[in-house]
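User: Quick sanity check before I run a bigger batch. Here is a single chain. Can you write out its predicted 3D structure?
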Amino acid sequence: MTFTQRLTIACYYEDQVLNALRHQGWHAEAFGQALLTEPMRKHLRMHDTPARWLPDIIAAKDDVLVYVDAKASTAIRTGNHAVEDDSTQALMRWQDFQGAPVLYAFPHHSGHSLVPLSLWNEHKRPAPFVGNGSGTPFNVAPCQDICQLVMAVV
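Assistant: Done. Predicted structure follows.
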């Protein structure tokens, strides 16, 4: 799958998560690379910068602020969700810097599983490269272990 195809799927999934958060009463907006043009995203891919890995969404409800990184991965075939290790490392630094939680959002049956970084880190394990994605090291975690908080799509 090409980068453009992966980006199209990722953008569609980000929109789904944004809409689901809004439906649950969150004020949610695009964040990170979603705000940049394609030429600037291309530049970020050519440089070793954590800006490439900023979360996709910022959301607030009452006095709670969270960041969400939407991952369009599917666990249908393997039972695992996958995330590039560089993403996790950058998001952990972002969470420490901001002092607000960062969650991964994964597709889950008829909704979205919101997974705190701490839960991801507890269950992740290195995975072998299988020819998909960007070719950088990544980890997997079983959906059955990390998909505990599910936000339904209405």
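The domain at 3-152 is CATH 3.40.1350.10 (Trna Endonuclease; Chain: A, domain 1).

User: Great, the batch can go ahead then.
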